[in-house]
Specification:
The chain has 224 residues and is α/β, with parallel strands linked by helices. The protein is built from 8 helices and 12 strands. The chain has 2 domains: 121 residues, Rossmann fold; 96 residues, Orthogonal Bundle (Arc Repressor Mutant, subunit A). Helix 2 packs parallel to helix 3. 25% of the residues are buried. This is Heme response regulator HssR. Keywords: Activator, Cytoplasm, DNA-binding, Phosphoprotein, Transcription, Transcription regulation, Virulence. It comes from Anaerocolumna jejuensis DSM 15929.
Length: 224
């Protein structure tokens, strides 16, 4: 089941929207853009529904920070504003779709389904390498009944490399895509996480993470 994040500072609207969507999707909530970014750090989200006018960090600012960090999660912006310039600002910030309040929930469900279909959410959640399965919906790695514990960044790093076997990713690319463009982490962070992944999978024959001296890393997948 896809996970929808509702970002809305009005508690009643947030509760109502959650109630209307929960029969069809798993729902998470946040009261402003800053809280939403915290949620994105903790769990997998398939689509975001966000209000524009919120305290601390508004909808436009939230989407802008997401896109600058390389997050391509679809976003539907909800607003009471009707002006063309407001919609232009929303799309320019990286918004995928736009609805004005009051919310027509039947129409919202149509738009959610269309966006999820276009982003191929159902086909991008899982990678299988030999007997190993990486499931990005639950951030789990498993082989048969055996489960491998991975921190969130370890999982995202491994998922990225195994999604493109044989492709070399520079340390800068990995930092930008996984930690975000404005991260204070450095290339030693990448090395530390790679070493942790190697240690956790040292008895697995499905793949190796290869260091390309002076460049970065790539995953080599083996037939098992």
């Amino acid at each position: 089941m896809a996970v929808i994040l509702i970002v809305e500072d009005d508690k009643n609207t947030r509760i109502l929207t959650s109630a209307r969507l929960s029969p069809y999707y798993t729902v998470a909530e946040a009261e402003n853009g800053e809280k939403a970014l915290d949620v994105l750090d903790r769990m997998h989200i398939d689509l975001i529904i966000a209000d524009v006018q919120m305290p601390v960090l508004n909808g436009y600012g939230m989407v802008r920070e997401m896109r600058e960090a390389g997050m391509n999660i679809p976003v539907i912006m909800l607003t009471a504003m009707h002006a063309f310039d407001d919609k232009r600002t929303g799309f320019a910030s990286g918004t995928d779709d736009y609805m004005t309040k009051p919310i027509n929930y039947e129409e919202l469900l149509w738009r959610i389904k269309a966006l999820l279909r276009r982003s191929n959410i159902a086909n991008e959640k899982m990678i299988k390498v030999g007997g190993l399965t990486l499931d990005s919906a639950s951030y789990t790695a498993s082989r048969g009944k055996e489960s491998i514990e991975l921190a969130k960044k370890e999982f995202e790093l491994l998922y990225k490399l195994l999604s493109y076997p044989g492709i070399i990713f520079t340390k800068s690319q990995l930092l930008d895509e996984i930690w975000g463009y404005d991260t204070e982490s450095d290339e030693m962070t990448i090395k530390t996480h790679i070493n942790r992944i190697r240690n956790k999978f040292e008895d697995y024959d499905e793949f190796d993470i290869v260091t390309i001296r002076g460049l970065g890393y790539k995953a080599e997948v083996h037939e098992c």
